[in-house]
Design a protein that fits this description.
Blueprint: E1 4-8, H1 17-22, E2 25-34, E3 37-38, H2 42-51, E4 55-61, H3 67-80
């Protein structure tokens, strides 16, 4: 069985989530941000997914300039990133 999903960020522009859901998309992977910047469409995409029953996962693109910052980010990601809920950010 194949489950359809999509990966979206600001660059996809305005998304018609009702149409997306009608096309069989069951989940969306949303870019939450880049480094210290929140994706300009993130909150809009979260609301669109929620209203249309599309499951949400998010990711952050991070830039590390040193080995120490990479190690800190890896530890942080492994311990807490996936346990957060999108609702905590809203």
């Amino acid at each position: 069985m194949t489950i359809k999903g999509m990966d979206i960020s600001y660059w996809q522009g305005n998304v018609d989530f009702a149409r997306v859901a009608a096309d069989g998309i069951k989940f969306a992977i949303l870019r939450e941000g880049y480094a210290q910047t929140v994706d300009a469409k993130f909150r809009q995409y979260v609301e669109g997914c929620r209203k249309n029953g599309i499951e949400i996962r998010e990711y952050i693109i991070s830039v590390m300039r040193s080995t120490q910052s990479r190690q800190r980010r890896r530890r942080h990601s492994a311990s807490s990133r996936w346990s957060r809920q999108v609702s905590e950010k809203m």
